[in-house]
Amino acid sequence: MAATNSASPPLVFELAILFHQLLKCVRQFLESNDLDFRAVTEMRKNLARAGVKKASEEFSTSVAAPTGIIPEKDLTKPQLRYKEFVEKVAPLVLDRKLKKVQFANDPKAKLLGCTQWSPKDYIFTINVAKHDVEDWERNYDLFIHELAHFYVQRNDHLFEDFWRAVSDIGAKLAQVALERPELFPTSVRQPELLAA
User: Fold this and answer.
1) pLDDT in tens, 41-70
2) Are residues 89 and 147 in the same domain?
3) Which residues contact 155 (CB under 8 A, 6 or more apart)?
4) How many other C-beta atoms are found inside a 10 Å radius of the C-beta of residue 187?
5) Which whole-number Å values give the CA distances from 158 to 3, 126, 171, 180, in the listed order?
6) Is residue 195 part of a domain?
7) 94 CB contacts (<8 Å, ≥6 apart)?
8) Are 37 and 82 found together in one domain?
9) How many domains does the chain have?
10) In the predicted model, is pLDDT for residue 145 greater than 80?
């Protein structure tokens, strides 16, 4: 027995048009490396009118911070090294106050890390149950990602300014690495990267 499509023909047609618009935006980005964000915003409005839910409606961005905060005296050397990195480098990348860096061990949390912010400062939490602080490539990724959340004061990963913040913070981090290399580890977990 053949599967039937439960969507009405007009809705299927409208979704096909929206999908075509999406492909056009992706092609534009790939060809010019310059995505027209107004076109993406318009496309998102069209999707909403068609009844397509926002990602945040399907996958909530309102999640609790990891629990099981590890006392400072119990932190491992790699945890202390990452904490020191965040404390020293974050103020050079963002001109906002870092209130605290803390570690949690919460296997039930879905988060690698979390940024809890107020308008003036933020707490950077790393969940060691999900994040290996000895992997510096992942440390940089988490650092950039969490600072971007604070910068835009939102948890929405699809928010246009979030991705711009990720790009800006990544560029600033690269500049800090060039100007202040002593703040960065001298070895990497993946030695094959050094051989290149």
Assistant:
1) 777 777 778 777 765 565 455 566 677 899
2) yes
3) 56, 61, 62, 63, 149
4) 8
5) 33, 22, 20, 32
6) no
7) 147, 150, 151, 169
8) no
9) 2
10) yes
Which residues 6+ apart lie within 8 Å of 119 measured at CB? 153
Q: Is residue 19 part of a domain?
A: yes
Residue 194, Cα to own-chain centre: how many angstroms?
26
Judged against a pLDDT cut of 70, whether residue 7 lies above it is answered with no
Pairing of strands 121-127, 97-104: parallel
* pTM of the complete model: 0.65
Q: Which tokens belong to 34?
A: 């310059």
Closest CA to 137 of 192, 189, 77: 189
The parent domain of residue 13 ranges over 9-52
Name the phi and psi angles at 130, rounded to 5.
-120, -15
pLDDT digits (tens, 9 = 90+) for 118-127: 777 788 999 9
